[in-house]
């Protein structure tokens, strides 16, 4: 649980870099900032609940906030890659899968996972659906990036680090959701929590690199 708290607090690293590099943030990085803000709000409730637990007070369920973060985060990422992908067919694909994803969100309503603040249930569909869709879209963007060959130093390109972080985070979460979720209900709950927390820390680090290198976009624009 302590490791989980550390992973939630690690969102403050990209928050600090957003504040430090705010004058370099273009539209796409501002969209990514929206994702960080949504994550910060979710983690605020998570850390608050953890503090109550550690101090011996009654904590509260936080799955409601995690479930909504899964939904809102997906739409923000979809908007980001809608802008990053140049091909009209991929943009059409993103619009289509957003409609399909909205249908999956509606299927969550009967269980109360997104309507009951005190729910103890994960979403049944949105975690897996968002992971699969994001992985497809990110791979399409990386393919576009390699085809265009417009980036001189890819290790200093913000969207490369965003894409790497999303591949690890959603790829890992897809594995967790498909193979470890049922085991987590029995004897493997600690393993599930550690993997999820480690993926979060890694993701927060990679998007921090995206904001760190945001000035490279500004310099490239000036050179052109």
Descriptive overview:
The mean pLDDT is 88. With 224 residues, this protein is mainly alpha-helical. It is built from 9 helices and no strands. The chain has helices at 2-9, 12-20, 27-54, 63-84, 88-107, 126-148, 158-184, 189-212, 214-223.
The count of helical stretches stands at 9
Strand content: under 5%
Structural class by helix and strand composition: mainly alpha
Helix content: over 70%
Q: Main β-sheet, in a few words?
A: none
Q: Could you state the order of secondary-structure elements as H and E?
A: HHHHHHHHH
Looking at the structure, what is the overall shape? globular
Task: Evaluate the radius of gyration.
Answer: 18 Å
- The total count of strands amounts to 0
Q: How far apart, in Å, are the first and last alpha carbons?
A: 49 Å
- Report mean pLDDT, rounded to a whole number: 88
Low-pLDDT regions:
none
